[in-house]
């Protein structure tokens, strides 16, 4: 493996809390306690800071790129309780070399406490952004017919820490003999009540309803991630401050039956992330180490790599 | 009653509704300290967010909020005790003291001065007891500065201990020159006439002194307290270092102050006890002098450590008689502001009785203070001295730290000032929501509890309803005036549209027992008189029903207004209401998030056994989890983005060098980040408090652990929820500190991007070379070679296997052209029957397996194929599962083009016999409508007659012949190709080729070329449809069909029931391809199987509505088009959707036209009806040119007679003539 590309001088004046490459892997967005978001152009081994977005009034916790079919869109969420949606617009459409400007296209500030995570739905479902807030609510913003609409509902009593969408066509829905009506919108949330909840969209009532509650963690659930791989099994990983990562699986034949395996660590855990293919799980935690985990053919999870700064 | 307390027009303290009550107010703010206004009506809470001025007489009114965001705990806040300066409040902000002028109108300029001379955090502020402009501050830097606010730029006098930081500073209450300060264990007495040396030093305690207080009467007497669990009474003039008296307490003492009455001392524990304890300075009767002084009373109430207490008094001294009354006001870590009613008996026990003689030498600076509240911004007071205006301006800038002008301010220790200030902006933990929370009357009211107040019922009801209905905005709430104003959206518009309503509700005093509120709607255009009358009438009905039950009607009214329940339902609810089940029936019907949340919240709190205050989700920023400073996130392409905080050893070294003691604390809180999670005990030790610059913060922290330790879940929830966020701040602070201290280009965070794509099963290098479309075996062979080249032997072998499976299957198909044509003819002959009997897709499968029934073979769909899928699923290889489904899908429908070209003239063939490189370029949409109709039509009409449509598909690239397995066919094609070249331009091709040239295509000539061979190919097939031959083959296939007829579903290699899954695989893989910038491959993958009806419905199912509903954000950029839609055939940057849709609609909507005799023969061949329709349509419809442009017409336009001859001549030997 080639040496990692290191951006040692991010320009951020404070801790970075999230980073993400866009769909094509050409741009990197980082966000920080310095209340800014920075966007880097990644070309090969080189990188270049192209933009600093300012607008949040608190530490920015999370950034998320939308699918490019909606445009170059970035969503960010902050301690200030706001979700901002940013969009890049070329200044001059005809000259590709010409600069582009980032503008804030939407400012969602109905949460009454820190918004800890935002997550775009699979693009097939439409332009949907789910937001998890410490005020205990989840909101789903939808851009549709040139308009932003939102739904907010209570999710976890002591605050919602994380949210992750299921792939648009997830295993259970594909194999079941009676395909569900309409598009599948389903996501999972993790909260400070130590619970994980799975939510389904009911197209008739147009509401999101909890369909499953997964119990097992004994401390705050800090992150959840639904594996994007469309396989006959669904995978959800959850990272908790109880120093475990749980990997929840459900079989296509029995989509509502979740069983979990526990990976134990020495430290509180913060993030879990699935690779787009191959179901490799990246786990990061309080010891500032990153490890990669993979299920072997016997169904056991093995650490395949350790990464330290 | 009191001469000194003039009865003001508004109120005096005797009219205070809260003075004689126990009450509590919840203030969800990180409050560090508290002080009371001279008149005793307001208290000010100093928090990290700023100042909160609460009118104790109007507790339901949210406080006035003066923002000043700071990451530092507010160590002290002092309201000037002078009646003449009752607008001044001093608060600490780390090493600065801010002088607020509450009489100023807006918060922007309410900081009148910034007192800045300390280099470390200020720990205490004390106003002189004699001069309203004098005050003293002391700080961790060991200095005591005395300030004259008339010249606030520098301290008037400074003292320093030089060795240890000061914890307290107090002016003597009787002697204006004497100041006491405490430094660690030492008490120092200073005289402002005596210079830099203390006039007396006493080593007063065994551990650090935390509280100093002068006696209110005796000029030489003072009290100290310490964590060594003692309170000591000194006379500094006495020569001995022994205290006059001492109280031993069972707890470490944080503060002990003499009561303003009698001889009491009120002691505040530092930890271990959340009550306040009143001791008497005088020994009980008959007690021996050596005995401890007696505990008189304890004031319970707080659930957390008490952090500050003060006395609220009213009345005064008249004619030497003391008429004062007192109320104790306390602030605790439970974030409750409590007012304790004083029982006269308790006061008596410390020697105070109302109406007794007054000790005259007491100095009361508060005397004559106007009884008014600064909660409301006063306008009657002006800024007195013009000088302050300039300083205000300066301070305004400084307050907005981080502002560019800031660094320019020249002040001593500017560095540390900027540091703190910039941190301020950087840390960014100041939520706007605080401002909001403050101004949200409901959130505020919820926290207010007043015993014995009638108002409470109304306040409770309002706050309860306010809690419940998050959609209702309570614009103003005035519990004292008993009126509220709410606004909401309810379904009152035309046709039940949402309508904005604003309602003023007044509650009579006898509500809810015997009166109903009045409802007044604010008129808007949409709210007609008639509507408001109707609603009002209904609301009155509801209210009356509620009144009959002696219940509040606000909830019912709001529900009704929101449209959540009709009038009847509302009444039924009220009448039938039994406890909790009211909500549930309503819940289900409506969006009712608000009520949902209540229930969820409740059950959870029950489960966890937490008190509701701690679970309160509003203002829940206390619940914000510790920030993540390290993370790893996968990018789509197999790279892993990691970010790490700065290396710790580096930063701590830095901190050490600079000698910041606070950093000890900070690095300790770092541990929380590190996850060592060493629990709370760490925070309660003394060293922590010592290093703590702001004494206030430590007692919060130390207070909490004791509470939270016992139950494990508790501890985690509690400690994380409430106390960790603080640590977040700390460590962020540390980070921030580091920034400033480091050189500008300092490394703070590490972001690294690791390329782990080799760990992923999905390979771009393979994807770019793999073929997707084409003859199964060839594709497999090619792909096997690709995999082998790239070194993926396993994949190569698997491709080999599949090739074997497919090879046999497709042999008959690819054998010779003649056979193919014949078979098609046969199919045509049978087609009608078959089609009727079987779904379209089944047909080819049946035919295919007619050759070898791989589907039933263990190496087919019974075992091998599922096993392969299973394996690749297991390793998460989206690429392989998608490709397998592509290849096998092709295989399954191998013969389909022959069949379905009749059904869907253009599409199916297109989807299959499509060369990966060039084929796409013939995608119909491009040529749609751009082909000049005139050029192609005449020709097209003729051609159409003979060989309808279909050809678009072929898209045969130069290597197409090979795929077809045609032996000499290729060469023939080649020649036809060249012919077409020359011919093309003369007919329709010029516009087309020029069109094509625009596309990002490998080259022009192939484009043009690929139109041609395909054409000739299909043409040959088309022309070769001899009836006679077909008869011969018909027999064969008929048998086969009959044989297969029993289990048509099992014929395909793929499990039909999983078709949706395979589709999803392909979609996922297509996504990956798009991301890899391989749009051609992406289109191919998406194309597979798109056109079966089944697929179409599937597609609609999964993606239906999406393209129409969502395109991109407003004012779409080119980028927004680039993501290729699932609709498929488009590839990047071309909007294929419209072309596609057009095509589909054209064929779907092909008008049924009476058949003409000329086509009858073909019909007998079993050629689909649609083909004929198409013919007719093409001659008749003006849109035909469009269709031709898309494909049919295009190729036909290029077709020449020569070509046809050629083709015929090839076909002839095999198929014969008709």
Automatic annotation (TrEMBL), chain A:
Signal peptide boundaries: none
WD repeats: 53-86, 187-209, 214-248
Localization: Nucleus, Nuclear pore complex
Classification via InterPro entries: Sec13/Seh1_fam, WD40/YVTN_repeat-like_dom_sf, WD40_PAC1, WD40_repeat_dom_sf, WD40_rpt
Presence of keyword Repeat: yes
One GO BP: protein import into nucleus
Pfam families listed in its UniProt record: WD40 (PF00400)
GO CC field: COPII vesicle coat; nuclear pore outer ring
Single GO molecular function: structural molecule activity
Coiled-coil segments: none
Keywords: Endoplasmic reticulum, ER-Golgi transport, mRNA transport, Nuclear pore complex, Nucleus, Protein transport, Repeat, Translocation, Transport, WD repeat
Main location: nucleus
Similarity comment: Belongs to the WD repeat SEC13 family.
Subunit structure comment from the entry: The COPII coat is composed of at least 5 proteins: the SEC23/24 complex, the SEC13/31 complex, and the protein SAR1. Component of the nuclear pore complex (NPC). NPC constitutes the exclusive means of nucleocytoplasmic transport. NPCs allow the passive diffusion of ions and small molecules and the active, nuclear transport receptor-mediated bidirectional transport of macromolecules such as proteins, RNAs, ribonucleoparticles (RNPs), and ribosomal subunits across the nuclear envelope. Due to its 8-fold rotational symmetry, all subunits are present with 8 copies or multiples thereof.
Cited function: Component of the coat protein complex II (COPII) which promotes the formation of transport vesicles from the endoplasmic reticulum (ER). The coat has two main functions, the physical deformation of the endoplasmic reticulum membrane into vesicles and the selection of cargo molecules. It also functions as a component of the nuclear pore complex (NPC). NPC components, collectively referred to as nucleoporins (NUPs), can play the role of both NPC structural components and of docking or interaction partners for transiently associated nuclear transport factors.
The protein's name in its UniProt record: Protein transport protein SEC13
Organism of origin: Penicillium chermesinum
Automatic annotation (TrEMBL), chain B:
GO biological process: cellular response to amino acid starvation; positive regulation of TORC1 signaling
WD repeat locations: 115-157, 202-244
Entry superkingdom: Eukaryota
Compositionally biased tracts (Polar residues): 1004-1017
Region (Disordered) residue spans: 583-603, 671-702, 946-971, 983-1029, 1152-1218
Positions with biased composition (Low complexity): 689-699, 985-994
Gene Ontology molecular functions: signaling adaptor activity
Keyword Kinase: no
Pfam family, one: WD40
Comp. bias intervals (Acidic residues): 588-600, 675-688
Keywords tagged on the record: WD repeat
UniProt cross-references to InterPro entries, sorted A to Z: WD40/YVTN_repeat-like_dom_sf, WD40_repeat_dom_sf, WD40_rpt, WDR59-like
GO CC annotations, alphabetized: Seh1-associated complex; vacuolar membrane
Protein name: WD repeat protein
Source lineage: Eukaryota, Fungi, Dikarya, Ascomycota, Pezizomycotina
């Amino acid at each position: 493996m080639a040496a990692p590309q290191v951006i040692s001088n991010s320009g951020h004046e404070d801790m970075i809390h999230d980073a993400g490459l866009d769909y094509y892997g050409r741009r990197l967005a980082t966000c920080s306690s310095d209340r800014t978001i920075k966007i880097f152009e990644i070309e090969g081994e080189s990188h270049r800071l192209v933009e600093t977005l300012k607008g949040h009034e608190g530490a920015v916790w999370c950034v998320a790129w939308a699918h490019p079919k909606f445009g170059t869109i970035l969503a960010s969420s902050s301690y200030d309780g706001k979700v901002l949606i940013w969009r890049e617009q070329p200044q001059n459409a005809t000259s590709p070399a010409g600069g582009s400007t980032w503008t804030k296209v939407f400012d969602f500030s109905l949460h009454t406490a820190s918004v800890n995570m935002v997550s775009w739905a699979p693009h097939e479902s439409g332009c949907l952004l789910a937001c998890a807030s410490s005020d205990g609510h989840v909101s789903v913003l939808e851009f549709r017919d040139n308009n932003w609409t939102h739904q907010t509902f209570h999710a976890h009593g002591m605050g919602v820490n994380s949210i992750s969408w299921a792939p648009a066509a997830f295993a259970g829905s594909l194999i079941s003999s009676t395909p569900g009506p309409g598009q599948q919108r389903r996501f999972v949330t993790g909260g400070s009540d130590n619970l994980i909840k799975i939510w389904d969209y009911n197209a008739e009532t147009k509401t999101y309803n909890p369909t499953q509650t997964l119990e097992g963690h004994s401390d705050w659930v800090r992150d959840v991630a639904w594996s994007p791989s469309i396989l006959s099994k669904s995978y959800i990983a959850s990272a908790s401050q109880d120093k475990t990562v749980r990997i929840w699986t459900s079989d296509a034949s029995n989509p509502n039956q979740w069983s979990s395996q526990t990976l134990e660590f020495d430290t509180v855990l913060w993030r879990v992330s699935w690779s787009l293919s191959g179901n490799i799980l990246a786990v990061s935690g309080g010891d500032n180490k990153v490890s990669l985990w993979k299920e072997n053919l016997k169904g056991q999870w093995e650490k395949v790599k350790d990464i330290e700064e | 009653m009191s001469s000194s307390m003039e009865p003001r027009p508004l109120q005096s303290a005797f009219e205070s509704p809260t003075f004689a009550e126990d009450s509590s107010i919840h203030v969800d703010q990180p409050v560090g300290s508290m002080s009371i206004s001279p008149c005793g009506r307001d208290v000010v809470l100093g928090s990290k967010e700023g100042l909160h001025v609460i009118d104790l007489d109007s507790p339901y009114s949210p406080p006035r909020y003066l923002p000043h965001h700071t990451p530092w705990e507010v160590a002290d806040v002092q309201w000037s005790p002078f009646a003449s300066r009752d607008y001044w409040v001093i608060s600490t902000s780390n090493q600065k003291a801010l002088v607020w002028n509450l009489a100023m109108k807006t918060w922007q300029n309410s900081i009148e001065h910034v007192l800045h001379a300390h280099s470390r955090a200020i720990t205490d502020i004390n106003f002189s007891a004699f001069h309203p402009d004098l005050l003293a501050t002391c700080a961790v830097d060991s200095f005591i500065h005395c300030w004259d606010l008339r010249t606030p730029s520098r301290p008037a006098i400074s003292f320093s201990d030089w060795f240890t930081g000061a914890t307290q500073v107090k002016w003597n209450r009787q002697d204006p020159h004497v100041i006491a300060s405490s430094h660690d264990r030492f008490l120092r007495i200073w005289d402002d006439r005596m210079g830099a040396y203390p006039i007396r030093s006493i080593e007063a305690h065994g551990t650090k002194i935390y509280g100093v207080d002068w006696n209110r009467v005796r000029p030489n007497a003072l009290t100290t307290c310490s964590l060594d669990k003692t309170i000591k009474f000194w006379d500094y003039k006495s020569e001995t270092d022994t205290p006059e008296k001492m109280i031993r307490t069972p707890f470490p003492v944080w503060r002990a102050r003499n009561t303003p009455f009698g001889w009491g001392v009120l002691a505040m524990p530092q930890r271990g006890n959340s009550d306040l304890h009143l001791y008497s300075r005088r020994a009980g009767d008959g007690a021996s002098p050596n005995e401890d002084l007696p505990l008189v009373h304890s004031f319970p109430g707080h659930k957390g450590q008490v952090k500050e207490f003060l006395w609220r008094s009213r009345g005064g001294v008249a004619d030497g008689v003391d008429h004062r009354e007192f109320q104790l006001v306390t602030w605790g870590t439970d974030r409750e502001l409590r007012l304790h009613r004083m029982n006269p008996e308790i006061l008596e026990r410390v020697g105070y009785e109302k109406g007794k003689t007054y000790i005259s030498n007491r100095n009361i600076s508060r005397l004559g203070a106007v009884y008014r509240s600064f909660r409301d911004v006063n306008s009657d007071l002006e800024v007195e001295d013009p000088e302050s205006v300039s300083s205000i301006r300066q301070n305004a800038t400084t307050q907005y730290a981080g502002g560019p002008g800031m660094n320019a301010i020249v002040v001593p220790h500017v560095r540390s000032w900027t540091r703190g200030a910039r941190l301020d902006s950087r840390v960014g933990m100041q939520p706007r929501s605080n401002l909001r929370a403050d101004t949200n009357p409901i959130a505020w009211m919820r926290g207010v509890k007043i015993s014995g107040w009638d108002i409470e019922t109304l306040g409770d009801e309002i706050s309860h309803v306010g809690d419940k209905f998050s959609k209702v905005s309570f614009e103003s709430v005035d519990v004292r005036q008993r009126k509220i104003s709410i606004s909401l959206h309810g379904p009152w518009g035309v046709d039940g549209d949402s309508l904005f309503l604003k309602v003023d509700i007044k509650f009579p005093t006898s509500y809810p027992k015997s009166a109903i509120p009045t409802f007044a709607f604010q008129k808007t255009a949409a709210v007609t008189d008639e509507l408001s009358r109707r609603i009002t009438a209904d609301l009155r009905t509801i209210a009356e029903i509620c009144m009959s039950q002696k219940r509040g009607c606000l909830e019912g009214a709001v529900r009704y207004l929101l449209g959540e329940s009709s009038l009847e339902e509302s009444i039924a609810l009220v009448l039938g209401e039994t406890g909790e089940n009211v909500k549930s029936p309503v819940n289900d019907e409506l969006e009712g998030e608000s009520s949902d949340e209540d229930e969820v919240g409740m059950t959870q709190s029950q489960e966890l056994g937490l008190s509701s205050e701690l679970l309160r989700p509003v203002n829940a920023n206390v619940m914000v989890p510790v920030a993540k400073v390290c993370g790893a996130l996968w990018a789509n392409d197999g790279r892993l983005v990691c970010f790490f905080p700065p290396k710790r050893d580096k930063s701590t070294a830095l901190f050490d060098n600079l000698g910041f003691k606070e950093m000890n604390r900070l690095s300790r809180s770092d541990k929380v980040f590190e996850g060592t999670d060493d629990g709370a005990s760490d925070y309660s030790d003394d060293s922590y408090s010592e290093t703590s610059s702001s004494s206030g913060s430590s007692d919060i922290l130390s207070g909490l652990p004791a509470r939270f330790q016992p139950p494990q879940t508790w501890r985690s929830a509690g400690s994380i929820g409430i106390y960790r966020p603080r640590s977040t701040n700390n460590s962020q602070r540390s980070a921030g500190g580091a920034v400033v201290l480091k050189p500008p280009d300092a490394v703070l965070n590490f972001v690294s991007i690791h390329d782990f794509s080799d760990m992923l099963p999905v390979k771009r290098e393979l994807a770019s070379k793999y073929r997707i479309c084409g003859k199964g075996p060839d594709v497999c062979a090619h792909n096997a070679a690709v995999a082998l080249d790239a070194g993926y032997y396993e994949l190569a072998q698997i491709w080999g296997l599949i090739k074997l499976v497919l090879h046999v299957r497709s042999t008959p198909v690819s054998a010779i052209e003649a056979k193919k044509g014949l078979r098609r003819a046969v199919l045509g002959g049978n087609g009608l029957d078959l089609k009727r009997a079987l779904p379209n897709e089944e047909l080819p499968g049946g035919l295919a397996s007619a050759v070898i029934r791989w589907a039933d073979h263990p190496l087919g769909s019974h075992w091998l194929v599922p096993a392969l899928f299973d394996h690749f699923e297991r390793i998460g290889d989206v690429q392989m599962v998608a490709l397998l489904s592509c290849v096998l899908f092709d295989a399954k429908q191998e013969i389909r083009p022959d069949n379905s070209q009749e059904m869907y003239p253009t599409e199916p063939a297109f989807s299959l016999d499509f060369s990966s490189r060039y084929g796409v370029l013939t995608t119909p949409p491009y040529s749609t409508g751009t082909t000049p109709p005139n050029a192609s039509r005449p020709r097209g009409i003729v051609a159409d007659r003979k060989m309808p449509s279909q050809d678009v598909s072929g898209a045969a690239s130069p290597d197409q012949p090979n795929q077809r397995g045609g032996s000499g066919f290729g060469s023939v094609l080649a020649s036809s190709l060249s012919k077409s070249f020359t011919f093309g331009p003369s007919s329709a091709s010029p516009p087309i080729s020029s069109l094509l040239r625009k596309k990002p295509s490998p080259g022009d000539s192939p484009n043009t070329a690929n139109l041609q061979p395909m054409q000739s190919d299909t043409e040959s097939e088309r022309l070769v449809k001899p009836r006679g031959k077909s008869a011969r083959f018909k027999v064969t296939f008929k048998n086969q069909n009959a044989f297969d007829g029993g289990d048509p579903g099992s014929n395909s290699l793929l499990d039909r029931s999983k078709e949706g899954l395979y589709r999803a695989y392909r979609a996922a893989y297509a996504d990956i391809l798009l991301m890899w910038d391989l749009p051609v491959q992406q289109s191919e993958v998406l194309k597979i199987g798109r056109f079966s009806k089944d697929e179409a419905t599937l597609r609609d199912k999964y993606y239906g509505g999406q393209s129409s509903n969502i395109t991109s954000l407003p004012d779409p950029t080119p980028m927004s088009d680039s993501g290729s839609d699932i609709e498929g055939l488009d590839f990047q940057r071309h909007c294929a959707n419209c072309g596609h849709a057009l095509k589909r609609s054209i064929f779907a909507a092909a008008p049924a036209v009476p058949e003409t005799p000329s086509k009858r023969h073909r019909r007998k061949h079993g050629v689909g009806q649609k083909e004929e329709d198409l013919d007719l349509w093409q001659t008749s419809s003006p849109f035909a040119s469009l269709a031709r442009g898309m494909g049919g017409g295009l190729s036909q336009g290029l077709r020449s007679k020569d070509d046809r001859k050629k083709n015929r001549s090839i076909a002839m030997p095999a198929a014969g003539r008709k």
